[in-house]
Amino acid sequence: MVRVSDQTRTRISRRIGSIAESATLAVDAKAKALKAEGRPVIGFGAGEPDFPTPGYIVEAAVAAAADPVNHRYSPAGGLPDLKAAVVAKTQRDSGYAVEPAQVLVTNGGKQAVYNTFAALLDPGDEVILPTPYWTTYPEAIRLAGGRPVEVFAGADASYLVTVDQLEAARTDRTKVLLFCSPSNPTGAVYPPEQVEAIGRWALEHGIWVVTDEIYEHLLYDGAQAPSMPVVVPELADTCVVLNGVAKTYAMTGWRVGWMVGPKDVIKAATNLQSHATSNVANVSQRAAVAALNGSLDAVEEMRTAFDRRRRTMVEMLNAIDGVRCPVPQGAFYAYPSVEGVLGKEIRGRRPQTSAELAALILDEVEVAVVPGEAFGPSGYLRLSYALGDDNLTEGVGRIQSLLGEAR
């Protein structure tokens, strides 16, 4: 006999069932699957440097793998050596003085994002989310019981939200502002004076700031990306800084990120992690120590290559009728508006949304891009220029040819 309560019970929890798959990873997986079939697909989807992890970091990992001390559990919050390296790196790169007790080492940047929102949010708390946003942010907010409140700035505003926009979105339920500069997906960088203005607005209204600085070293054209608690020191007690080794050191697969914040928040997030995953893999942590304590020369070489590719991609995209691409000043993404192309006929199809346009581009010229719907409103595409120069030119050239047929 089936009870009434059993009839209404779902197989998958509503909380988890409501999560959308990572759009960027889905596009990357589809591109790789098509390549495996022998198709000449060029993928602009994944935010992943095409460079190998620098050799000195790999060597440190090999040595760590051979040391039995790394074959055992270690503190859930991170190896003391890595916490010390994060403290030193934060002072060196940002001028922000913190203590090891303010650091939690996480399994990649994504766990740092989730841990932070889980530690800060109660059901119904609102998080102001400048849009376009990285696709994981709203899902992590919802998982933690919060409600993302989108504040959109388009290409005409260089994808930078204003204090007035943030204030218009503020309610008595607002607890957190998510801030990301340089930005994924747009590559936008907030100028120092705007970082300070936003920080002081948050301080005035008692709003926490979660600031994602994982692209801090990928800056171009003289742009600066100061850490918000440095330009607004009074904010330090209500600010969590997120970072990791993935983008700076071409270590996406090593899965090492971290949170820096007030001790009570870090302690709470460490308690959560002790039950969720325990420690980050020790070999990866030892590699991260070598990365943070080592030279930034390899990072500069990568940045130089990204800068060259950035200029090529933006020039080629802006040469397409109906496409408008602001020049990104950071990260390794271009985020063109394709609103001028939507609704036009291209090879017998009339894409009305950027999702439909992305599907058409993949079908017709075998180029994978991520549609704007993954990051907020329709009408945009995200293309990563963290791939080889030849593939970049070939891939954007295919898009130029296809969209040149729009009528």
Automatic annotation (TrEMBL):
One of its GO terms (molecular function) is transaminase activity. It is an enzyme of class 2 (transferase). It comes from the Bacteria. Gene3D superfamilies: Aspartate Aminotransferase, domain 1, Type I PLP-dependent aspartate aminotransferase-like (Major domain). Its cofactor is pyridoxal 5'-phosphate. PANTHER family: ASPARTATE AMINOTRANSFERASE. Coiled coil: none annotated. It comes from Ornithinimicrobium pekingense. This is Aminotransferase. PROSITE patterns: AA_TRANSFER_CLASS_1. Keywords: Aminotransferase, Pyridoxal phosphate, Transferase. Residues 40-399 form the Aminotransferase class I/classII large domain.
